[in-house]
Amino acid sequence: MLDHVATYTCGANGCGIATCATGFFNVDTTTSTGCECAQDEHEPNRFVSNARGAKNIAPNGVTDDGYDITVTGNFVPSGTSDFYWFHATDESLSNFNLTATLKNIPAGTNYDLYLYRWNGSAWAQIDSSTTGGNANEEVNFDPGLFDDSATGDYGFEVRYVSGPITCARYTLNVNDP
Length: 177
Fold this sequence. Notes:
Blueprint: E1 5-11, E2 14-20, E3 24-25, E4 37-38, E5 55-63, E6 67-73, E7 81-89, E8 98-103, E9 110-118, E10 123-129, E11 137-141, E12 152-162, E13 170-176
Parallel strand pairs: 5-7
Antiparallel strand pairs: 1-2, 3-4, 6-13, 7-12, 8-11, 8-13, 9-10, 9-12
């Protein structure tokens, strides 16, 4: 029995994988490894420009007096984008400084990072990082010390650009130091 295989198909040349167990995929298309890739726990979390149905990574919200949130994900079964969001409160006399860093991008792949703010009806892009290859990506938003109007919902899109789909997980860190 191979790992996470739900059903097999057999013929004159032997047996192969017909279907994988729910949440698992045969990304390398090799029968001997079974269904080796697990879909990350945030799926589905695709970017939708006029909805907030993606993964809320801070259900209780955050304030700008310091936070540090880390999530990991992958693009199994296919490369598109992953979207995360949270509500941030800009407290008076605190410096609102949102930074998101995408790292641990698998070798041979290229992912980009986009930062959005909800404008009441859609996600509006406020920063992006589109470094080539698997270099770290970073986006920032700092409205200034005396601007107390940064309270709102912020979204982070990790976008698959190119390269093989792998089981490897990227890391997204969002903080206000």
